[in-house]
Amino acid sequence: MTSAREIMTAGVECIGLEESVVLAAKKMAELGVGALPICGGDNKLRGMLTDRDIVLKVLAREREPAATKAGELAQGEVVAIDVDDDTHHILRTMTAHKVRRLPVIDGNDLVGMVALADVARDLPDAQVGDLLAALSTD
């Protein structure tokens, strides 16, 4: 069974709790990603920030992006997977939480990210369709 370690993107960059949403958007653009982990000063994972969060929680509410801190958008329990979790566990986690990207943790350390596309490449076509259907419903 394939593990997160085998399909993840390693070397993930965080956005700090106190860093602005503008800086986060610039990092996303530079890295070509749609999400960044939010990390504290101890580099511990505190949440996730997506491009969608910036649009819906900042721009649509007419908040000032330069004055809005990434940490203000970190809400609820952080959903993450372990580096040794297999693709079936990753699939269940994505489906249960309706997310398309998951941070990968090894102990207390953030070591990578797994995206929907990473999982899809490792699954039979029927399971990919089921995953997409589950993530697309409200």
UniProtKB/TrEMBL annotation:
PROSITE patterns: CBS. InterPro entries: CBS_dom, CBS_dom_sf, Diverse_CBS-Domain. Pfam families: CBS. Residues 8-65, 73-131 form the CBS domain. It comes from the Bacteria. SMART domains: CBS (SM00116). SUPFAM superfamilies: CBS-domain pair. Keywords: CBS domain. PANTHER family: CBS DOMAIN-CONTAINING PROTEIN (PTHR43080:SF2), CBS DOMAIN-CONTAINING PROTEIN CBSX3, MITOCHONDRIAL (PTHR43080). This is CBS domain-containing protein.
